[in-house]
Records
---
Amino acid sequence: MPKKLRLAVNTGGGDAPGLNAVLRALTLSALNRGYEVVGIRKGYLGLLDTTQLVPLTFDSVRGITRLGGSILGTNNRGNPLGIRVEENGQERYVDVSDQAVKNFHRLGFDGLIAIGGDGSLKIAAGLAKKGIPIIAVPKTIDNDLASTVMTFGFDTAVATATEAIDKLHSTAESHDRVMVVEVMGRNCGWIALSSGIAGGADVILLPEIPYTIERVCQKIMDREASGRHFSIVVCAEGAAPLGGRMSLLEEAHDGHDARLGGVAPVVAKQIELRTGKESRSIVLGHLQRGGQPTPFDRLLSLRFGATAVRMASEGKWGHMVTYSPSGMGMVTLEEAIAEPGKVPVDCDTVRTARELGVSFGD
Amino acid sequence: MPKKLRLAVNTGGGDAPGLNAVLRALTLSALNRGYEVVGIRKGYLGLLDTTQLVPLTFDSVRGITRLGGSILGTNNRGNPLGIRVEENGQERYVDVSDQAVKNFHRLGFDGLIAIGGDGSLKIAAGLAKKGIPIIAVPKTIDNDLASTVMTFGFDTAVATATEAIDKLHSTAESHDRVMVVEVMGRNCGWIALSSGIAGGADVILLPEIPYTIERVCQKIMDREASGRHFSIVVCAEGAAPLGGRMSLLEEAHDGHDARLGGVAPVVAKQIELRTGKESRSIVLGHLQRGGQPTPFDRLLSLRFGATAVRMASEGKWGHMVTYSPSGMGMVTLEEAIAEPGKVPVDCDTVRTARELGVSFGD
Amino acid sequence: MPKKLRLAVNTGGGDAPGLNAVLRALTLSALNRGYEVVGIRKGYLGLLDTTQLVPLTFDSVRGITRLGGSILGTNNRGNPLGIRVEENGQERYVDVSDQAVKNFHRLGFDGLIAIGGDGSLKIAAGLAKKGIPIIAVPKTIDNDLASTVMTFGFDTAVATATEAIDKLHSTAESHDRVMVVEVMGRNCGWIALSSGIAGGADVILLPEIPYTIERVCQKIMDREASGRHFSIVVCAEGAAPLGGRMSLLEEAHDGHDARLGGVAPVVAKQIELRTGKESRSIVLGHLQRGGQPTPFDRLLSLRFGATAVRMASEGKWGHMVTYSPSGMGMVTLEEAIAEPGKVPVDCDTVRTARELGVSFGD
Amino acid sequence: MPKKLRLAVNTGGGDAPGLNAVLRALTLSALNRGYEVVGIRKGYLGLLDTTQLVPLTFDSVRGITRLGGSILGTNNRGNPLGIRVEENGQERYVDVSDQAVKNFHRLGFDGLIAIGGDGSLKIAAGLAKKGIPIIAVPKTIDNDLASTVMTFGFDTAVATATEAIDKLHSTAESHDRVMVVEVMGRNCGWIALSSGIAGGADVILLPEIPYTIERVCQKIMDREASGRHFSIVVCAEGAAPLGGRMSLLEEAHDGHDARLGGVAPVVAKQIELRTGKESRSIVLGHLQRGGQPTPFDRLLSLRFGATAVRMASEGKWGHMVTYSPSGMGMVTLEEAIAEPGKVPVDCDTVRTARELGVSFGD
């Protein structure tokens, strides 16, 4: 008779639409197998503080598939491999991972399902080496992991961004304006690319394709010349001007507190200075992290969650769940963090955008 | 036999969800009466340039009820009573209204239906005095006209703002943050009040209720003390600190280019400085002007449009259409612009908010 | 010092979007006044069964404004003034209201806030006469109460119906079909009228305006003749053919089990038989009762809830809360149930529909 | 210098969300290459009637990405390889394909891009053999083609179905009812499976997994026993009872006109008879074909359209465009129609559903 497992679950990093669906799938698949599941609040640090344990039951996951946020909370900045401590005005990092591992075993857990992004995956790999059986579920709405075709939350983020671009369209047009919309994506432009094409943007700026503001303005003026007196520019937060970001930021920004704005206000001002066209910007920011997951993301999240428990039942510790249309799969934790996901600059989607007439400012 | 009217229609000012529905209702009600309708692009200035005339037909308004924007465009900055002219580096204002009136009659129009906001209504009143038979349809998503219970576009703007607040909720919570959301409303806080209550805001800042940042922070810290480590602040763009806006803006803002931000970034920074809590802001801006009108706004817009033609058929020139639940009505153009709409500080809705525990920072 | 009230709350009848928002507002306004609130499950019968009592706290209403359904459940068919009992194959009705009243007082309640529709209001009036201090909150998504301008849930039902009509439009057109959409409204056609106009229906059938199928078909063939090869018919579930419903039902229906369909399938078949045009139907049914309330309905619900507690604090027992744009109000329970809400056949909205070219089949 | 192509485009079969986006991408990619594009109304038969030709321009595809329906119409029942003719009360099929091929060449077309489903693909294969250079774009919202990972419109259909299930949930619960929801999928259950899981259905009935009504009822009664007094059953229109569909249909249906209902009403009645629980049904039908495409479907549609023109530019006639996450691809027309898409009964998604506790009635 197979062992009835006692599983711990935690989540790390920022919010992502679909988190609750993952938790529901984890819990139902585990309980339906006769397993126990215990949620650990506060991420990995919850292992050091037993008041943070929450048994997950049929009732606690009822009806949560469609809710944004996470019933476990997602707030977690702590890394047990190096926790930040301030003493006498000085900060230092203390490794408390041995204590975490000890507690994990003392609490009778057979394995940990860790839902998290880049940072959490690295911690997971570290704790796995120290003897905690871990299965990771990737959580990054930027879709920036090469090892999985898609991550949950991405489709919802794209939908939110696309709807925003839709709304800005008619106003940009009626006011003869340039609207610059900043979407998420520090190192990876999938959200900007997908929402930009779906929303009918005229210019899309990605971290992967360095742009010059001159070519951006050229596109805007070309449209002007053909009687289109407005333009929509979608830029990733990590959009990269040729020659480096800082110098351009300095040009228009000059001491601007980054927390008050983003890249888009700068780009808008640069465009206005060069083209003389009224330009406005909006930074969508956290709007993209919240809200109901799309049906696509709900299904994907549920599949991630169910697969993680299936992998646990088969003893596939030390792996991260991955998705491809042909079915869920897995990679080792080391492979998972080896290679970031990037938009290949010659991929079919970029090519489609160019054929539709979109400029990447290059 | 009643005369078959030839009606002109123009729109002035910014975009508003429902504009197309008004145009469709105008056109269908007019054509079904055997009237003619001609759209004038570029607002009142279109009267000076006959290339801007567009006959409106059954086909031209087909399927547009649910579309944002306006098939006539809404771009209009010109006032024929004082059009801005630049000569030798100097600007002056020229009154070309006599020419506009002459053209209006020469083109054989029996009346003009003018859809517009505050500014447009004033021009309408001026042209009416010069002999153009005008019926006005109010267009202000801020709902800031005392003479009508509601204007079209307002419900959609509230819906957009509320959905944004919904999305920010889970993220604010999971990150233990204060989120400050700025919505439209320069002089009138209806959008902030309605979306703030519907979205479950903790603090709502209105132009009508002067606030102090200290009381705002008090509310946030009270929540902190009771275990709620996040807060949502909704502020109107015209939110008014006690003692005047400028001084507070200067405190945190200091030379900040207004086009790069708004009130919300300032408020967020002030909160962060005083409470030590991480605070973020988002300025929804034009998101609120675009997009599909809600079913409520579609119906309201269609009613405004149909009523305007009905009034024309009854010769009620010189009036603006108004809405109240008991039926559409009208006021004279003079009454229409006499009194701005404001949130009464002791109204039932404000009272409801206070009873729910919302702070107005007062 | 005013008394700290101990309030009971129950809900009766079917689901309505906004119920949870009413409960949240009731709870917060009560707790913020230092009152106690206890939810009674199973409607009035819950008064007979103390296992059905649920104290409502800040935590129990957290985040529920935007959720469909009701945290108290809404299932309630029992009337303590005449509860149905089956004995020896015979059914009879037993009055258990004295017991309910006794329990109410024994449990120390100062008043009952009863949220419910037509049937519940009648029970409320009955129990009020027996000495239970009651404030009623109307709950009918049909908007069929003359004493209040609008009831919560109606706007959401209209939005759901309008979105459905939107979706059917392109398909009706691409398939050259007649689509008949049945919406709620047994005795009152507000949902059909509002969604029909907002959704661009060609024919709208209401309980208030008797139609003949011949005139409906005439409209469809007129459209055909002018090159519009499709039509959208929106009918209320209580749409009333001239000469009575039964005969027409029999003509096309003939033994059809009513639970398998509704009015729309019959109307569709009648149209197909008479016009030769392919006709399809859809009965939206419960789709209109569920789902997230619109922001409009959330605000309205919160206002209803807060006002009910305000009225309790002022001792206004025996009244129902009402809404009008100028502010919340109240009527006595007797007035509340005296007059049903109907669409006035010559109201401005009906007139608008006719001017847009909509046929009512009359 | 590569030849400037003159392309014809037609669409066949039913409506699908994304059709307009495909047309926009086709047109923009073609015009940006200096090609000409001509839309042919009425599908293949439009080749026999030159009044059906519509040149596609930048203006004609402006802003249509987000619109449901198709600017070309989709109504097309004609097959030039065997067109139905009625003569003297007798019908026969006439092959007019030679004429269609002749016209195609006479009109100077270099190739035809045919957007269509199963039937259209077969005609395309036939016409390709007769010498028309064809590139096909698959159009089936059922996602029932084995040769492409996904087809456009499917994601939108799943979203519409999931939202409907969401709305039915709270009402099913508050009324203690069984709700049976019928979604599209005559031979292929992807829509039912995806929306059923995402919407939290308790039972999902697919064409691929024969069910018995007894096991369906068993699941419902198991839920009843554990205190869940409601259930949601999602069934594909082609859901297949073990032992054949007809007998079960006859049992409950008995002469019921299929156009008045579907499978769901029958299943609901069977459940009610066996469990004694009140059961209701809704047939979503055409709701799933209409409406705005989701951002996912918009992007997918644009990619399909752009790839088709790219293939034309490379002379890849006789192929159908396919999608996989690694990029767009192609198969020959023969391969395209060789194998229908089915839900593999042991696929990961079915397994996930079972692990979540969903019953397939098997």
---
Amino acid sequence: MGERIVIVGGVAAGPKTACRAKRLMPDAEITIVDQDSLISYGGCGIPYYVSGDVADEDELRKTSFHMTRNEDFFLRAKGVKVRTLTRALAINRKNKVLEVENVISGAKDTIPYDKLVITTGSQPFVLPIPGAELPGVYTISDLHKAIAIKKQLASGQIGRAVIIGGGAIGLEMAEAFADLWGAETSVIEFMPQLLPRIIDPWFSTMLEKHMESMGVKIYTGEGASEIIADENGKACKVVTPNRTIDTDIVIMATGVRPRSQLAAEAGLLVSQFGIVVNDRLQTSDPNIYAAGDCIEVTHMVSGQKFMAPLGSLANREGRIVGDNLAGIPSTYPGAMGSFIMKAFERCIGATGLSLESARAAGFDADAAITAPSDRAHFFPTEAKIPLQMVFDRRTRRVLGVQGFGPMNDAVLARIDAAAALIAKNGTIDDFSLCEMAYAPPFATALDALNAAANVADNMQMNRQRNVSIPTFMAWMEDMSCQPDWRALDIRHPNEVGAFVAKYDDKWLPLVYSDIRAQYSKLPKDKTLIIICDAGTRSYEIQIFLDSVGLGNTLVLGGGFNVITRLEPQWWPNK
Amino acid sequence: MGERIVIVGGVAAGPKTACRAKRLMPDAEITIVDQDSLISYGGCGIPYYVSGDVADEDELRKTSFHMTRNEDFFLRAKGVKVRTLTRALAINRKNKVLEVENVISGAKDTIPYDKLVITTGSQPFVLPIPGAELPGVYTISDLHKAIAIKKQLASGQIGRAVIIGGGAIGLEMAEAFADLWGAETSVIEFMPQLLPRIIDPWFSTMLEKHMESMGVKIYTGEGASEIIADENGKACKVVTPNRTIDTDIVIMATGVRPRSQLAAEAGLLVSQFGIVVNDRLQTSDPNIYAAGDCIEVTHMVSGQKFMAPLGSLANREGRIVGDNLAGIPSTYPGAMGSFIMKAFERCIGATGLSLESARAAGFDADAAITAPSDRAHFFPTEAKIPLQMVFDRRTRRVLGVQGFGPMNDAVLARIDAAAALIAKNGTIDDFSLCEMAYAPPFATALDALNAAANVADNMQMNRQRNVSIPTFMAWMEDMSCQPDWRALDIRHPNEVGAFVAKYDDKWLPLVYSDIRAQYSKLPKDKTLIIICDAGTRSYEIQIFLDSVGLGNTLVLGGGFNVITRLEPQWWPNK
């Protein structure tokens, strides 16, 4: 008889561990226990099931070859035993048994193990506010809740929705309600921006503006303080310090916490980020492994511990546990939180550290912002994809990349390539030379990612000096507060007119190709903010003006391709 | 006065060198000479200009901000002098002058230099066959020829086209003729496959079948032996050993050769692959640099010298020469030929070495073939993207990746990430763990590229044993030639029926999930080829059968997702 492996938790990391271990050790006796009746589903697909993109919840439980991943499937196809509706009560490490109880009958039982794997995942964090537990308030934590939400949508009960939490799940749910079902949808985010920490504010604002243009109301910097019930006891209003919003449903998407209680109670080492594991994903008991949302992960860039509740990581980690159970010494290098999400007709993605996170982690970090074309500018489907590259000024190491673009795989390509290089401690030079595949329908000769690296190079070598986007935005808002600044707008006269009309002599138009001939017209006693479409020409002009003694200039990185995405009213043709 | 820099060649590497150098050294005196009247155009865009995707040839000469890159633009905007219609005759290295002649007037002149840069590009190779020089035979080498071709198309003179050469340019031109203009288009390729050397035959055949399904006639393994003229002396027939094809135009797309004559005549070191340079792109004369199609490049994977005539590389190389001219010691690590192309509704891409090239370069190379989903299988736009990962069995280093998929950026994302990792000597393990961004609209939880690496891992660890695709195809063609083989088809009975009907008892259907219960039915004295959709389940079954003593099995890597793309008649629903 083979080794007895017991796995607690059957959604992502658990089944992956089980199947990999069984393939490596065909005679192992593997049992998965899960307190739910539904296992091994694509939890990340819930927003698309709710929206209707995925017709049936069963599709989230099916393999790519159309078999439903239920107990019978695991037993027959994989040789893995699954006990659903079975709650793990305690780990008896001395006797190496797992104590369990049937959640329906209450019957208790013990399961002996040689090796135990904890893949208990995460649980949604519920804001401790009045009304949080009312009927009509849902977390997006399991398929049952998703089924209940969709039933209400399908029967026309939801005309209005409030999402508490502007992270990825909250925003995906907002799209699900607003897009196909036409619900009047509001998102409330306590932090001053959407996607806090993983995306810097000037990027998340581009997403916010797009979602608003699609009809979603977004209130950032505003926490929900209470949920109020109607006469039937069902949630009907969400209260913030600034407003009260009527609603038919409330989605609580305020993050998750590791489900690490079972491990902690068994005396295993647990931190605020989850179960502590070594790089072979062993807990402090060498006979017990852990993987998925419930473990503490090392950030590959900062070296800091964090929680990384991503389905993609759960699968990688499960495979590594499977290897180690079978004696293959695979190690887990940690994670960097590669991330991408769809929002209506746009997508946003990131990998590594944001500028804010990088500085918080102690790096001498700066950010190169560009707005390059995703493919040849003469190709019909070309679009701009604002990119940001966060780098360390001391070492030239690239710490993170963010991108925003149309809803296709153009941003994905740059994020994936960046993740690959960052994992290998890639520097600005590695990114500058990275040989992205080129043909006009797919990229530019110097790819967008190479271009971002070249901007970072120019900044790190102190050839390019920037004004920050928030500073420039504040200045556009109130021109008088920065009396010594002037905008030097080098774009085509057609693009510049509206700004000159509004800002008068504070906005100096001088076409890019005329500057070498006419720079003597420019004021010497003002700070000139050089403005173009993408920031590239502004840098050229900065260098030229430096060479003729006009050194008091700053480049607006990303140029108006970024500004118009932050302040759509600035789009001149609108 | 600043340094005098003279650059010979004004298409891609030359202008890039000039502009970068001028930015780094604003007081440098930079002159570009080019024998053509048109400079700095996007040569890779020619097929899209011919097709009509790009309306006007001027668009290929414009910047992203709509200025035409002509002599006036370079002088006014960049501070770089351009002398068009000026042919470089000789380099007088002793006196450091370039001897030139005006191609219209014949007037001769000399241009003194402190540093010279040779960016003379490549010239099309013209097959030495009778009729190759006839009117109506075009190479795709400059914008003038493209304009002439499009004029004929637009005036309805081209109903039939023959392309000699099945490389990327030939195939892009074939699409241009066939798609928008509806010309009856034939491609002749001397080698037995399209895209020889850069793509392995089972991948290029997928492309070939798709192009055929769009109406392009493709003849591989068939060289053009003669081009015949009509009574007006214009090319009207292309002759091969097997056929004579009537045509209104002939495109000669049989590769390019480095334009290194100027360098060679000046006594600089030149190889068959181009001008020899060091890693700072200096020629054998330290005052002379070279970049672009005309230089010999080191392959980053094989270490071998080769020619890499790609616009993307020309731009990278130009930037490095610019740096070095300005005293910044940037180095060029070489290239790996990252490549992608559109063909109607599909795309194909590659980076690094093909299996054939890897073996030729002395690696103990093998290839993992998969056919994973590009995004969550439950997401509506999901498609399969066959991927191949070439790896070294000895070191686990990944040597190359190829992909084929629908016409979007899904293949691009995997090729770009692969290129990034291969450049850093990435191993199978790096690829397995590479943290590709995940959300259901963009990827699968374990990304397609991770999945390919996991197959490579299983193969390298000798857990997975494959039958090669050519072997299996030959066997399907003539079942009798391999009497001891049986197909064990574990797909859904709906998918299997047609094969059982055709192959009778040679084709054994047994559903994946029934194998653990029913394996005893399987013959023990035959080689079983295990067949599923993507190869993944077949591997699982192989492992299981090994464990029960049925060790004589082989997996069909990539499964029927690959086979149906190679032999469309096998698509069961067709």
---
Amino acid sequence: MKIQIWCWGAIRESFLKEGISIYLKRLQKYLSTEFVEFPPVRNASKLEVPILLKTEANVIADKIQTGDILITLDEKGKEMTSSEFAQYLEVKMGSGSKRLIFLIGSASGLDDSLLQISNDRLSLSKFTLPNQMVRLVFIEQLYRAMTILQNEPYHK
Amino acid sequence: MKIQIWCWGAIRESFLKEGISIYLKRLQKYLSTEFVEFPPVRNASKLEVPILLKTEANVIADKIQTGDILITLDEKGKEMTSSEFAQYLEVKMGSGSKRLIFLIGSASGLDDSLLQISNDRLSLSKFTLPNQMVRLVFIEQLYRAMTILQNEPYHK
């Protein structure tokens, strides 16, 4: 199974780029994981939010293939401890699906249509985190989950 | 009022250092904020966890002054949205205390005695985050809270 993290736009801040690449590299030992960065919608700042979200949702919906598992990361999703997340991941990995997709919304959020077609909604925190920092926090949790499942000490 | 973030040890990863210094700098416009990094307890890895935590707790308790507000950041604390945290901060800032201290435990956690003397316990996430990443996530929330209170757009 492949894990993909879908998100909008490239990382701007160099410190986030560096941090994400560190965890992404460590993670490859356990899991094939990649970020898929969609180009931001043109003139996004001039669009009304519902229209922007709908446009983004259409891009995403087009990329979903039969058999994909889609999980959205949004503040209103369910929260888990790191151990619970590790177990959750183990179940998904045993499901026979080829792609497990975690979708991070744009700064404007996620369209309801995506929440409806998603298999699950996860939340990292009740706090609103910067869209780009979510990538760092989440990839670290993926790595942590794998060390939990492999019963390995966490590499600090 | 001064905000201090108390924690153990210097930041090792350069990307975290960079990220934290970016938010710390932005934050000074609104709030006098500093990190106070206590030197790690000697031979910490050879001590049993309860003894290590007790040793750390003694260091912390020694530094607390009358009138300080002490808030621990730990997974079992209460979670808030960013807006709730901003309001929470506003109340604390209006309390007349000179120091508002947020305490991040070491990788081993926090001794019960500290949880008992603390004025409050906050949690950033149900996930276990790396001790050093907590500093980044938290300083960003402090900055976000100030932009919320000042009704300013968040500087992306």
---
Amino acid sequence: MNNKPVLHTILSPRLLDIYDVSNSIVVIIDVFRATSTIATALFNGAAKVIPVNDVAKCIELGNATPNSITAGERDGKIIDGLSNGNSPAEYPRSFIEGKTLVLTTTNGTKLLHIALKNGADEVITGSFPNLSAVCDHLKLQNKNVVLACSAWKDKFNLEDTLFAGAVINRIKENFTIHCDSSLMAEEMYLLHKHEMKNFIRRTTHWHRLAAFGLEKDLEYCVSEDVANILPVYKNETLIIL
Amino acid sequence: MNNKPVLHTILSPRLLDIYDVSNSIVVIIDVFRATSTIATALFNGAAKVIPVNDVAKCIELGNATPNSITAGERDGKIIDGLSNGNSPAEYPRSFIEGKTLVLTTTNGTKLLHIALKNGADEVITGSFPNLSAVCDHLKLQNKNVVLACSAWKDKFNLEDTLFAGAVINRIKENFTIHCDSSLMAEEMYLLHKHEMKNFIRRTTHWHRLAAFGLEKDLEYCVSEDVANILPVYKNETLIIL
């Protein structure tokens, strides 16, 4: 009898509600750069990260929260009224330790809210900097998993898919997987895992962000286990499990 | 100056309206099996194919159209009230020549209607049996192109993606392509083009349909240029251009 839990990958927030996420762990993936920045800030000692989807709410929560940082970018520039940007490089321990990061993200936060509304049992965030922490957690829990790619304005993107593939490649023996998205994601990861920093130069998101001089940032975002903690969403904040 | 037309690939009907399809040729792709069957029926002399998305309309149009065949399946069986199924093998010249095929398809017809509603300039259908005809047409037209995968109940599928990749691989020099879906589709095609009939055994759709003894059908659907005509949608019917 096969009683392994089931794993699916979804390639855009628009496809999430096709799947039953109740009793599932949903992994929010936004490699460039929200979930890379979240892992990094928490790894470097941030007390918590509060993801919000609009600037007004970011400012409001920043004002209401002692010892907090407000962060968000549009078109590679810090948004007016916020203090910081979306780059993981902005959050070394010397700066972020003990603070609360209130972070505006569009793609990732939207997905997180859909997952919660649809009854996800647990929401965690993943990117290459915390790949092993995500995989170790999923293997231990013995629950159904949805790897949820944030995409870019609902359009499929490769960097999130590659991360989903990296996870699948490491944990597939523990799951039942009948899902073409997952099969594709793992194959794309296997095809490029030894040249990830070159391959990402071919993605549309690279071209969008490299125009703002963010090449080093993007290379960091596909570096495995450099901020290896597990962010879990509880009471509207992300904290280390 | 780069004035090549633009090509995008969309991986599910739910993602079509993110893209501007006005002034574009939309290629409807439903490899298993609607667009393979459509190419085959027209190649074998069908006068036209009328795609409809529900059974009642199929029966109504069948009754209203002289010398017509009604066709559709659910779960591998011919739908009650219709005369034929969805298999390309059911439409040899000896049977279909001169007839009108009224075909119920769910995934492909839905996509076709979204494309028309959103102002597509032209809608054609493609699958491996008419790969070259599709590519030759797209190269000649010098218009923007959207390769639209029908997917399965809105879920990403590999067989439609592989066909999109085959098209991209043959026509990419004629287009501007900044689209992660297209990059992925071409890479998946290149990875598997020499073992397509084996690889499709790993897809979810194979497992769904092979249970009904359709292995030969599915192998036919990934055979290149075996029914090499171009179906174009005009006045609610598909005819050979």
